[in-house]
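Example 3.2
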Amino acid sequence: MLHTVELRDFKCFTSLKLELGNVTVLAGVNAAGKSTIIQALVLLHQALAEGGTQGERRTALPLAGPLVSVGSVREVINQSGGGRHFGIALTANQVTLDWTFARGDDSRALDAKVVELRWGPNAKASELLPPAATKACPALVELLKTLKYVPADRVGPSEVYPLFEAARHRSLGARAERAVGVLHWQGRDLDVHEPLRHPDPTIVPKLLEQTQAYLRDLFPQASIEVSDVRGANLVTLGVRTRDDQSFHRPPNVGFGITYTLPIVVALLSAGPGGLVVIENPEAHLHPRAQVQLARLVARYTASGGQVLLETHSDHIVNALRVAVSKHTIEPNQIALYWLEPDRDSGAILPRQIQIDPRGRLSERPEGFFDEIERQLGKLYDV
């Protein structure tokens, strides 16, 4: 499990150390650094998962790639200190990989030079991931390589979805467009981890049937089918919203199912010990479906997985609080953070909000999902 993320002079953060839980929730106002934290992880995942073995021996970190692009090195380094370096450090199983990157002579460059990687008192190198670091931190390296990233800008309803060799579908793609391909390759072969299987014991444990069962919790009577396109590296997704209907193309059934499908596939296929990173899981979802999706997140973490999610939904947060009160997960397994720039300095210091065994919050900062009460208060004032 990933325990901490540290950022130094990376984008909006001059210094940040974030303690992660089995479920880590990043909430807060817009432009408060939530996506920045996620981008730091995905940049490393992108270099290692998309670059193959050559990615490990690189001497620079690509800042523009197939999964995430953050611009030039000048845009990545925090400007408040006038420095030329930034750092990312990750800790898992009491072992830390600590990278320091630098800009070169050309500030427009789309990569950052690896100045140093440290993984022990006397262990350092100037490569992205030399073999000695992999040997010293195998669990952390595997976590980075197999991370499942579901971005906010998901592909949505499409006539066709790309199909690559099976190994490339370990990563879901820049817009989670490879999720349907995961069902093509693993849907009928992969058994979902037993503690995570759908509560209905009649559902077979295979990934496709389990995915469909969880989708039906969110969208009653919904069904899906995956078919390959003959003579092309493509797959199609058939969707129906009633058992007595035929399957339709995704553009004919709206955004909800196709926006949620990658999240369900990621959680069910990641396996115990995996890390799933999700942006805006609530997108295009009715509040009741948001609650059901949060319950699946809680079940995944209870089965041994880890989730980092960014959300603007009080329904997601409240459903996780209920999961604590129902003993699905323990209070200390959730790390809930509120991010907001300081009004005077502009610095962003995440505030951790504790959840007690009854699901109650230790505090509710101003702006923390209180807009409903504020607007209802205005109605009562009329």
